[in-house]
Design goal:
Blueprint: E1 2-8, E2 21-27, E3 31-37, E4 56-62
């Protein structure tokens, strides 16, 4: 499962919900973005993201099937800045599933 959390109004990064791992967190100048992941075990409850002071959170949850269960995270990248174009790149090749 993948949980995307964006925060507007502060650069404070939210903590990972209980049982979830951090894939990538990126803080900008007045916002932040976090991606958390968890291998579904069946009967999972919805994640709870703790409030961040002076921030509006937006959370999206997705579930995918057919991925690796032992080491589901391949790689991450991120970028932040004030220019109009931002590109996040990774240096390694994708792992085949």
């Amino acid at each position: 499962m993948i949980l995307w959390v964006t925060s507007q109004g502060t650069v404070t990064l939210p903590a990972a919900p209980y049982g979830w791992s951090i894939s990538k967190q990126q803080a900008g100048t007045s916002c932040s973005s976090s991606i958390f992941y968890k291998v579904a075990s069946g009967g999972d409850t919805a994640p709870t993201v703790a409030a961040v002071t002076s921030s509006v959170l937006s959370c999206q949850l997705a579930e995918f099937s057919g991925g690796a269960v032992i080491s589901p995270l391949d790689q991450t990248a991120g970028t932040a800045g004030t220019t109009s174009t931002q590109t996040a790149t990774v240096a390694t090749t994708d792992v085949a599933v």
